[in-house]
Design brief:
With 152 residues, this protein is of the alpha+beta class. 30% of the residues lie in helices and 29% in strands. This is ATP-binding protein.
Amino acid sequence: MADHQEASVTLPSDPASVSAARRYVSNVLADWGLPGDTDTADTLRLIVSELATNAVQHTLGLSPTFTVDLELERDEQLRIGVTDSHPRYPKRLPAAVQQDNGRGMVIIRCLTAECGGKLSVSPTPEGGKTVWISLPWFARVNGHNATPHRPC
């Protein structure tokens, strides 16, 4: 496999785009060797769903699109980022017992940490931001499991 692989898709900031983002990431990861029927693939789909949902719901209509970027470095590290053009960084919202939202970043951070990864946010030159997750690559390489720091 190549030392560096990238894939990217830009979608409208619409609730229907969340499932499109999830499918896109799932297909790219399968092309890169991660079977779709694994716990890791399920976890990554959930993370992407949460990131895309945040990009749609919390940009207050100020970001007409969002972009999902995937990067795989030397079959060792996977990075997935979701970029929107809204300048406000994500923050943990107070979540009352009756509240149905406000927990997305907590979910993303916990799932990423369980997989041995980390979450970060970086500004874009245009004034928006990218929320990144970075974690060890778990796909089978030449019939052998890659060695993640922790199973995901």
